Amino acid sequence: MLPYHPHGRVSDVSVYVIIAAGGLGRRAGGPVPKQWVTLGGQSIFARSVGACARASSVTGLVIAVPAERLGEARVQAEAAACGKAVIVVEGGARRQDSVAHAAAALPADASIVLIHDAARPFVTEPVIARVVEATQRDGGAIAALGVHDTVKLADTPGPTARIRSTLPRETVFLAQTPQGFRRDVLEHVVALGQQGGDVTDEATLAERAGYVVRLVAGDPANIKITTAEDMVLAQQRVSSARPGESRVRVGVGYDSHAFAPGRPLKLGGLLVPGVDGLAGHSDGDAVCHAVIDAILGAAGLGDVGTLFPDTDARWTGADSLDLLRQAWGRVQAAGYGLGNLDIAVVCCQPKIGRLRDAMASSLAGALDGLPSQVSVKGKTPEGTPALADALIVHAVALLVEREAAVDGA
Ligand code: MG
Whole-model pTM above 0.90? Predict the structure, then answer.
């Protein structure tokens, strides 16, 4: 099977996913609510059900749908649910009413409950596993994305508003789903939702009630299909891998830098003391540069020079591991996950063998993967004195098209 590593099964908890598909969802522009639109032969609703059901930590699902969709939803959900338990209930007028109806139908043993949008069909097992794990630990957790753009707070809603202030973007996150709650927290949140006004997510109610709600890494590809434009992107995503077309892509990266006495040595995001650093516009981390080229090449997204040109002062002294994270965000947004990465570092010094495990962990962290997906080996330029003054890196990356990764799990 493909080398895509699902996270471990969570033991001793029964995890149920509530999918609230009760809304009318007419913003996509068509006459049919968006979650019932067909994408590549399957409704968005059924794809969302299937994506959750395939996660090894999920025990079963409770689905809230409009009364007129009950029969059809049951058929679609049972076909998509990989044999897991599916309970279908009638939704309510508002999102929180649909969630309340679903919560009332949860089995007695459900101890962790995730709430997921019916219009997010591209959620992956690692995102679900992160939400489950953090919910177990803290009582509440949601998948979320950091922002790379500068964030402005306006004085009024609307496009012609004036800026009031600039927010520190490090503390700004965009909420996705799933959102997870311990059973007792969910029940309190549901009760609050029945008393108060409309909310756009359940975490809002939990925050207001003073519960800890932890942020865990979401996925740029876990989009909520809301507009007609989103529909076009989603259609392209599911049609990009036709039967017989390759669902894996390979990329190669290469970089070499001369040693530069007096600079710190950074390799694969690690600071390596006691050895001269590498010359370069950024921090000179040739391992990160070769890996960036390998992943961008595999995804058909250009190379490190086009993404982070050395004529741009923004990248002077840049942390190359951070550049790798940014490049990986683009690769993920294009619909790819990591298969594996293999790296050869050619140098006289430092000795790569002793850095191998730490470097694999560092790079895996930047790529949302596991250290077992990253291999690092060192070679010395034996009998080639001309190469002694430089460090050379070769990297090969295998990317897995995300639908294929999920289907193969
Ligand atoms: Mg370089």
Answer: no
